[in-house]
Design a protein that fits this description.
Blueprint lengths: L2 H27 L19 H11 L4 E4 L9 H8 L3 E3 L7 H12 L5 E5 L19 H5 L2 H8 L2 H13 L5 H7 L24 H4 L2 H11 L14 H18 L4 E6 L4 H10 L1 H18 L5 E5 L4 H4 L13 H13 L11 H12 L7
Parallel strand pairs: 1-2, 1-3, 3-4, 4-5
Helix pairs in contact: 1-7, 3-15, 4-11, 7-8, 11-13, 12-13
Amino acid sequence: MSRAANNIVRLLCTSVLIVAAAAALNFVVDPLQLLRPARFTPAMYSADSRMQDAGLIRSQPFDTVFMGTSLAIHFRQSDIDRLLGVRSLKLAMTGSDSREQNIVLEAALERHPRRVIWQVDDWIFRDAADSGPDLYLPSDLYLRNARGIAGYLLSGAMARESALLLARSIPSLQPVAARLGTGVVFKFLIPDVDDINALKPDFKVAEAYNANKALAAFRDITDPKRSLYLAERYNYDAMVRNFERDMVGLIAKHPDVQFDIYLPPYSILQWVAMRDYSPATLKIVYDFTAYFATRLAQLPNVRLYDFRSVKEVTHDLSNYGDVIHHSPAVDLKVLSWLAARDFLVDRSAPTASLDRLKAQVAAYRVEKAP
């Protein structure tokens, strides 16, 4: 064998050994806790919900699943548990659509929870991008198929995380690991599940959520250069199709699970923006809500809550960081409403809350800046 051939063989053997070592390290450490709860190293978690949720489903005990978008991302599991008397698992994902949420919930329901609390709005049912959920969601991790497990074990990025977690478990290496764990290179840096995507205690709520922020966001989305955003991918037929596939189909498949679905308290400015700058979009939302509420009223294992017309919250712009995202104080209000079954949609009058919202939107006038 020539020297060049020997070099190629040695390179291939070295590459195989490196890949095998990475796979072995990932299998033993299992940073995502996809294969088992943490055993050999301290459990650490990532703020990347689309990835981390796959591991949380497999590693955490729970009887209730909490799903949603960025409007539910800052809830604390401890608050959910305390106010609702459950053992919850928060699986909310910023910017997630109904297809992504369906995939994650299907995986979570394999663990047989008793209840799903699902923050839903019309936005998640919009026609999805052509690329599908795999553009952002590592769906193979949730399906736990051969491609997903192999990709996880052979991942160099995961091997890097495994090495840091292993270093954290060795006392002499802990100072070095602490310096490396800055969040720039490594993802698994959160030691407590309750802190995943939760606001820190020193977070300045009043600076992030106030009327000036909400009004500035309103002016931004109604600027002629950006107002087309209000109508982006809104199509009634597509929304109904996605709703039937991703929500109704899932609920019907799990008749023994209680689904508590709620429509979050957007600020009134979101609806007024549609009213004044994209009335066709507002009509689609109204028509879809009527279909959505009427359809869910037919499902015996569903309770639907509509918080969109809770005027003392939605008209108080100090509760908002933009036109839809509400403050942590409203997070707690939402949980208290769910606990008390306030604003529960009556099955015999599923569109009554929509009618209240319509009346408020029609009457509201935005104050002009001085």
